[in-house]
Amino acid sequence: MSVTRSQRIKSVLLDWLLFSVLIRLFFSVLTYLKVPYTGTLVVGVLLLSGTVLFLGIPYFFGNQTLGMKFGGLKFTFKKEHRLFYYSVRWLVSFGCHVLLLGIPIAINVFLLLWNKNGLILQDYVFSKTMCLASSIEI
């Protein structure tokens, strides 16, 4: 059974929502501590938030981000290579978003909603990395 468009939409949107909530949480703590914002601090918060959600959680909790768990999806990376693939996938995504000033986010939303399969840019770069969680055992 293949991954449906609605499963991809649910998982991607929930991951993006959790990413923005985690960023806001970090900035709320920094504001409470009266830490002045700098460009380096902002990039650091973005990297830390993304590392926790898109690298740490899938690595330690069964090849799934929180959004993928909700959508019933799972990465299909082999166990011995998964940290490498998670890292490269996250850094490529983050690099594109920062260097291109958020244009990939707009492209991803367009692809997610109007593409027949609901594939986003990362799915094209890292093809066939998701499947139904119930269909594999890693």
Automatic annotation (TrEMBL):
<keyword id="KW-1133">Transmembrane helix</keyword>
<feature type="transmembrane region" description="Helical">
    <location>
        <begin position="83"/>
        <end position="114"/>
    </location>
</feature>
<keyword id="KW-0812">Transmembrane</keyword>
<protein>
    <submittedName>
        <fullName>Uncharacterized protein</fullName>
    </submittedName>
</protein>
<keyword id="KW-0472">Membrane</keyword>
<feature type="transmembrane region" description="Helical">
    <location>
        <begin position="12"/>
        <end position="33"/>
    </location>
</feature>
<feature type="transmembrane region" description="Helical">
    <location>
        <begin position="39"/>
        <end position="62"/>
    </location>
</feature>
